[in-house]
Every structure is written in C-alpha cells, then in structure tokens.
C-alpha cells in the first residue's frame, strides 16, 4: 500500500497538468462552472430514468380497483406494465348478487345502460363495473367501442343516487387504468370535471373512487396531468385531505371501524398527489406544486407506510423536475423526516426518500449544506452496504453530488469514513453502483484540495480506478483516465510519480491503458496514448523522481523522500 502525502496549497489547485487541456475542458473540473452543472443534471436525469424503470413494482402510475372481496373464481388478476391492482376495500353499496344482469352479455349490458329505465341503468352500470374489475383481461375496448362512456359520465352527475355515481366512477376508474387511448377517451368523454366535483361528495366511498379515477388520469402523462390541474383539481383535493385527516383523528380516538376507510382514502389521496407531481417533460406547474407542498409535508408524518411511500415519491418528482423548487421543499421542513426515513426497514420507502435527498444535494452548496446538517452523511455508510443494489446505487449517486461540491463538503464525506465503502463498491459492487461510485471518486479528485486527494490516494483508490478502465462505456473510461492523470500529475509535482506509476502498473492499469489504444472511441485512444507517453515513457523526464529518492527508511516499511525545492512541501519531506 502506497502512502501519498501531498502538501495542501491554498493558493493553487494542482489537479492536472493544465497544458494538456483546453479551457472548456478545465472548466469541467469545478462544480460551479456551468458545464459541470449541466453534466450533473444530465447524470441525474439518466439516473432518474433508470430508477423509474427499476421501481415499477414500487409505485405504479395507474391502478385498477379489483373487487376481490366479492368472491371471484379468478382472483389472480394479471395486470400490464404501469398498472397495479387494489383489493377493493371500497365496495359497492348494493350486493352484486341482486344484479339481474350479473351474467348478461356485453351487448345486453350496453343496451340496458341506454334504456332510460333507472333500475336497468343501475344494473347495467354495476354489471359493466363487474366485468371491468374482475376479469383477467378486462373488456375495455368492447365497452368503449359500444359507446358506454357518455352514459357513465352522465351517471356521475346524478347526486340523488350516490350508489349509481359510485358504480359509474368505479367503471371509469378501470377504463382509465388501461392504455393511454383509454384514459384519453375517458377525458374526452367529459369525465374530468364531474370527477373533480365528486371530491366534495359527502359520501367518502364516492370521493375515494373519484380520487382513484383522477389518479389514473393524472398518471397517464404530462398533458392529462396538466389538464386536471387546469380544471381545478388541487383545491378540492386539499379540502378532501383536510376532511380525511380530521375524520381519521376522530375515528382513531373513538376506535371506530371508520379509521380503516380513512386510511384507504388517505393512501389514494397521497397516490394522486404523487401523480400530480409526476413526469417532467414538461414538469407540473410550479404554482400547483407550491399549493400541494404543505399537504406533502403533513402526509410524510402519517403512520401508514403506503401513504409515506407515495409522498416520498411525490417529493422526489418535485425535486427532480422543478429544480427551482428545491429551496421551497427544504423550507417545508421535510428534510429531517426524509433523513430519518433512511433507517426504515422497508426498501420501498428508503428508495424514494434517498432519491429526494439525492436530488436536493444536486442543488446549490447552501442546499447541500442543509441536507448534510440534517444528518444525511451518517446514514450513508449503512446504505452503501445495503443488500438492495438499487439503494447502494442511489446512495453512491447522492454522494457523487456531494463530492462535486465544496471542499468543506468533501471533507465531511471523508470525516464520515465514506470513501472506503465507495472504493469497495467500485471493486466488488453491482455494475450500476460501480458507475456511480466511480463518479463519486472522480468528482473528489476533480474538486478536492491536495490533502484530500492525498487521503484518497492512500485509501488504495488506484486499483479501484484501474478496475473501471475495462468497462464498455467510453464516458466512464475517460473520467477514470482524467482522474488517474490528475493523481499522476500531483505525484509528479511532489517527485512521487514513479511510485504512482508502479501502483498503476502493479494492478494491471498499464496493460489496460495499452489495450485502450485500440479503442474505437477517438477520445479514449488519444487520452490513453497521452498518458502512456507522458508518464510511462522511457525518457529521462518521464515522470520519475530518481534524484529525489533517499535511502530506505526507519525499518517500518517506509521510504523517506527529500522535499522538492518549490517551497510547498513540509520540512520533514514526504513518506510512503
């Protein structure tokens, strides 16, 4: 193990030999340069896409209301991507056994729905809902193509019969849970405004079914989400949340059975909030997010994990998509709770909480400092050793953004002993986590002072970086070579380049650099060639320090080197 002891120089950052870089390339070495900020945002966006793909089972955009309680022989309902079933705690006010159309054909159901008879219409709407909510392959197209949507929308506007309204809302929920064209058909049929008005219904089961349908509409994408916001969904939803919170408190204090229904409704409201914050091309209107933020802060304190999970996702979408609102999210007071949730036993909660904090530390240095002051870093050691690879990746990604910050922030990462596990991830971790840990280490080389880079070198970082020279992604290979060049340049400055070269060659790094000269990417080829010529050539000035080497040291396995004459070294020289 080589011990490097580079002198801290406050007047000059000796990161790399500047003659080998253009001004635009050098600007990327520092976080506060524009190009570096753009690079961080690009990496965050890429990671967000990966996270969404990996988390389909944790947080679904659309949900079908599956009435398993009614007793179907085919309870094992298979759902498509982007859908999630629910067990149907919100049940029909009338027992389905009384429905005369329970076994009718789709044509008979549609005919009865348009008959004009209130009794027949109710039976038809209920039969339609049954078919859509209990079959393995719900006949959405069959009902939509037969023109039932206008009849269902009209049924929403009959408050005198809340049973009919409930059944119609349930049927529309399951139609909207289908493909994008089905969701759009529901909206185009005029269902959006009546469903929003049903959030004010005095019947909680009707209000909850409206929440469910609206969640499917908002979860379809940015366009329908924004149409729902423009139609005025936010304020009725906030009023419903206040009402549910009040009823939940009353039910809990009286041990009433109504508390279960309130929890179910609260969970669906949190899910609707998350879908109103979801998608970022374009992001949701900032005004709507600001209206919802106090509710999110309150929902984060709920004692129900499903509510907390969806709220964490909502906050992760807000901090990811609308970067100007990171400050407002911090001001809402959610950071301490998010940090505490990192200790949760459920990975489904840890993941979005960590994602939100990771987004926050991509902000300004002041915003990053707030996250660190809330106790984020002490939680990271356990997260870097988590048994879920995705959580390890997210933790490494968040730390890569901290290490792209100021030198005091880098020092906090060092003080929390987080560098050794990051190096361990690069050597032994899952590939996606290896990439993020590599970004973290290379960011530290880029922005750290000489003492911090010396610490990193002494943590045996060279074998870890050389490990990544053989990956397929040219971008990763390039940032690794940049960091190795920085280490070699700094070692050369203090007459220790020979030993750094030995370290690189000893772990197979030189062989990999030579192999990269055959790489198809021109930049990879040029960088590897330049490194070999500058530091591993046989010329007299090839980076070594032959004149500076002293005799063997004090018998403790160390060698003493005399100090260079540039005045920056400590009087006692440098030790390996």
UniProtKB/TrEMBL annotation:
<dbReference type="Pfam" id="PF16186">
    <property type="entry name" value="Arm_3"/>
</dbReference>
<dbReference type="GO" id="GO:0006606">
    <property type="term" value="P:protein import into nucleus"/>
</dbReference>
<dbReference type="GO" id="GO:0061608">
    <property type="term" value="F:nuclear import signal receptor activity"/>
</dbReference>
<dbReference type="GO" id="GO:0005737">
    <property type="term" value="C:cytoplasm"/>
</dbReference>
<feature type="repeat" description="ARM">
    <location>
        <begin position="190"/>
        <end position="218"/>
    </location>
</feature>
<comment type="similarity">
    <text>Belongs to the importin alpha family.</text>
</comment>
<feature type="repeat" description="ARM">
    <location>
        <begin position="333"/>
        <end position="375"/>
    </location>
</feature>
<dbReference type="InterPro" id="IPR002652">
    <property type="entry name" value="Importin-a_IBB"/>
</dbReference>
<dbReference type="InterPro" id="IPR011989">
    <property type="entry name" value="ARM-like"/>
</dbReference>
<dbReference type="InterPro" id="IPR024931">
    <property type="entry name" value="Importin_alpha"/>
</dbReference>
<dbReference type="InterPro" id="IPR036975">
    <property type="entry name" value="Importin-a_IBB_sf"/>
</dbReference>
<feature type="domain" description="IBB">
    <location>
        <begin position="10"/>
        <end position="73"/>
    </location>
</feature>
<dbReference type="InterPro" id="IPR000225">
    <property type="entry name" value="Armadillo"/>
</dbReference>
<dbReference type="InterPro" id="IPR032413">
    <property type="entry name" value="Arm_3"/>
</dbReference>
<feature type="repeat" description="ARM">
    <location>
        <begin position="147"/>
        <end position="190"/>
    </location>
</feature>
<keyword id="KW-0653">Protein transport</keyword>
<dbReference type="GO" id="GO:0005634">
    <property type="term" value="C:nucleus"/>
</dbReference>
<protein>
    <recommendedName>
        <fullName>IBB domain-containing protein</fullName>
    </recommendedName>
</protein>
<dbReference type="InterPro" id="IPR016024">
    <property type="entry name" value="ARM-type_fold"/>
</dbReference>
<dbReference type="Pfam" id="PF00514">
    <property type="entry name" value="Arm"/>
</dbReference>
<keyword id="KW-0813">Transport</keyword>
<dbReference type="Pfam" id="PF01749">
    <property type="entry name" value="IBB"/>
</dbReference>
<keyword id="KW-0677">Repeat</keyword>
């Amino acid at each position: 193990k080589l011990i490097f002891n580079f002198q801290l120089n406050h007047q000059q950052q000796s990161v790399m030999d500047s003659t080998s870089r253009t001004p635009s390339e050098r600007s990327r070495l520092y976080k506060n340069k524009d190009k570096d900020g753009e690079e961080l945002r690009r990496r965050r966006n890429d990671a967000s896409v990966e996270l969404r793909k990996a988390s389909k089972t944790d947080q679904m955009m659309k949900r079908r209301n599956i009435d398993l309680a009614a007793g179907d022989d085919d309870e094992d309902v298979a759902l498509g991507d982007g859908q999630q079933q629910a067990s149907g705690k919100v049940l029909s006010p009338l027992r389905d056994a009384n429905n005369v159309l329970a076994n009718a054909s789709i044509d008979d159901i549609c005919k009865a729905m348009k008959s004009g008879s209130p009794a027949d219409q109710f039976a038809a709407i209920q039969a339609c809902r049954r078919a859509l909510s209990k079959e393995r392959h719900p006949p959405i197209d069959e009902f939509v193509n037969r023109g039932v949507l206008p009849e269902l929308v009209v049924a929403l506007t009959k408050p005198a019969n809340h049973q009919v309204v409930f059944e119609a809302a349930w049927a529309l929920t399951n139609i909207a849970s289908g493909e994008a064209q089905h969701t759009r058909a529901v909206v185009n049929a005029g269902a959006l405004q009546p469903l929003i008005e049903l959030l004010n219904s005095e019947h909680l089961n009707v209000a909850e079914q409206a929440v469910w349908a609206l969640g499917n509409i908002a979860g379809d994408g940015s366009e329908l989400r924004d149409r729902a916001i423009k139609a005025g969904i936010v304020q009725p939803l906030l009023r419903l949340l206040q009402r549910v919170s009040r009823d939940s408190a009353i039910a809990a204090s009286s041990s009433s059975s109504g508390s279960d229904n309130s929890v179910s409704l609260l969970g669906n409201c949190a899910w609707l909030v998350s879908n109103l914050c979801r998608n970022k091309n374009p992001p949701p209107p900032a005004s709507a997010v600001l209206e919802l933020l106090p509710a999110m802060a309150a929902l984060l304190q709920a004692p129900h994990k499903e509510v907390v999970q969806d709220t964490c996702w909502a906050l992760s979408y807000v901090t990811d998509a609308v970067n100007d609102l990171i400050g407002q999210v911090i001001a809402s007071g959610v950071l301490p709770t998010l940090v505490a949730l990192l200790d949760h036993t459920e990975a489904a909660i840890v993941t979005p909480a960590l994602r939100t904090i990771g987004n926050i530390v991509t902000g300004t240095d002041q915003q990053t400092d707030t996250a660190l002051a809330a106790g984020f870093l002490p939680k990271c050691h356990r997260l870097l050793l988590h048994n879920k690879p995705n959580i390890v990746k997210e933790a490494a990604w968040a730390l890569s953004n901290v290490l792209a910050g100021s030198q005091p922030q880098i020092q906090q990462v060092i003080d929390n002993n987080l560098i050794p596990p990051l190096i361990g991830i690069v050597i032994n971790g899952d590939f996606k986590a290896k990439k993020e840990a590599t970004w973290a280490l290379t960011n530290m080389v880029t922005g750290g002072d000489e003492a911090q880079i010396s610490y990193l070198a002494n943590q045996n970082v060279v074998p870890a970086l050389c490990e990544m020279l053989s990956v397929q992604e040219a971008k990763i290979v390039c940032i690794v070579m940049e960091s190795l060049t920085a280490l070699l340049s700094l070692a050369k400055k203090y007459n220790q380049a020979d030993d750094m070269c030995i370290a690189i060659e000893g772990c197979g790094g030189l062989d990999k650099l030579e192999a990269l000269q055959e790489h198809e990417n021109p930049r990879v080829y040029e960088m590897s060639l330049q490194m070999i010529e500058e530091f591993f050539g046989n010329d007299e000035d090839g980076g070594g320090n032959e004149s500076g080497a002293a005799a063997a040291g004090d018998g403790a396995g160390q060698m003493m080197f005399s100090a260079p004459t540039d005045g920056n070294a400590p009087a006692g020289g440098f030790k390996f």
